[in-house]
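Sanity check

After download, print the first record. It should look like this:
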Amino acid sequence: MSFLDNLESNLKSMESRDERVSPRERERGRKEADRVRAAATAPFTEQLRRGPFTADLLNEATRIGYGLRTKVRMTWIDGVLRLDAREHRLELKATAEGILARFYVNQSPTGEEIIDASGSARKLAERWLGALAAGKSAPASHPY
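Expected structure tokens:
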């Protein structure tokens, strides 16, 4: 048997094996993978939802936004904490590696990193809103 014949035979064997797996077994495998992923992210999800870091981040972002005359909107969407201020967005999501922070400007990703939930929430808020402050124009003067 030549190499190509052997390769073709192996491919046919793998295809027939895949066809023998029922949709029910595939669904069971998918559910098991989801369960394992949820178990791996559970400690970080709990930290994100109920930890002091999140409360501090929300307070600091609101405080900094107030100083910039910018409304900071906070939204929970399927386990993702989203903070929006003008065209800037910060999303925090629990992963198996930790809490992932994704930064966006005008809906375009500008960076992501795993954050330390025992670290400073103020530094994260300042870094996120720092670009907004740098591009801030002077407020218009009032005629009165």
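If your output differs, re-run the checksum step. Summary of this record's structure: Confidence is low (pLDDT under 50) at residues 136-144.
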